[in-house]
Amino acid sequence: QAEHCLREFRLNDDWYVKPTEIDGQGWGATEAARGALCHWIDVKGGKIKNYQIIAPTTWNVGPRSDSGERGPIEEALIGAPIADPKDPVEVGHVCRSYDSCLVCTVHAHDAKTGEELARFRTA
Fold first, then answer.
1. Confidence of residue 13 (pLDDT cuts 50, 70, 90)
2. Is the pLDDT of residue 122 over 60?
3. Under 8 Å CB-to-CB from 12, ≥6 apart: which residues?
4. What confidence score (pLDDT) does residue 43 get?
5. Taking a C-beta distance cutoff of 8 angstroms, is the pair 59, 36 a contact?
6. CB within 10 Å: which end of the chain, N or C, has fewer?
7. CA torsion angle for 37, 54, 99, 33 (degrees, to 10)?
8. Which among 50, 52, 6 is positioned nearest to 29, based on CA atoms?
9. CA angle, residues 6, 8, 14, in degrees to nearest 5
């Protein structure tokens, strides 16, 4: 299948095709390695009025739902054993097991007091 697709590819073909419609909307969705990836676009007068992407990271790290349901990573961190609270490298391990595209700098805070417990790089 991949070889067939590559043979269809023409290096000298035009890579840009001018749109014939000046107004329109569209969307696309696919399943990426880390989860669902969705794009939405709204075009008015031949210009992009709005473009929205929801990447897998949004789903994986997203905030709680309206009903208070925790996101996947938050749920996975509950009860995770931490050997050294001043250097909680396990947090990075859990987070990156869901999404390798997360930043590698983490600030850990006590949820009750707001006190910063640690600031470290996980990579």
1. confident
2. no
3. none
4. 95
5. yes
6. N
7. 0
8. 52
9. 105
Q: Which helix (H) or strand (E) holds 3?
A: helix 2-8
Burial of residue 60 (CB within 10 Å: 0-12, 13-18, 19+) is buried
Which residues of the chain form beta strands (DSSP E)? 24-32, 35-44, 47-54, 105-109, 116-121
Q: How far does Cα 65 stand from its chain's mean position? A: 17
The first and second tokens of residue 55, run together, are 């990447």
Residue with tokens 């749109």: 19
> Residue 66 has which token pair?
């309206």
pLDDT, tens digit, 9 for 90 and up, residues 100-118: 777 666 677 787 888 887 7
Integer CA distances (angstroms), 58 to 53, 61, 98, in order: 9, 6, 12
* pTM given for the model: 0.55
Contact 118, 108 (CB under 8 A): yes
- Reading the block at residue 6, the tokens are 């590559």
Q: What are phi and psi of 27, to 5 degrees?
A: -155, 160
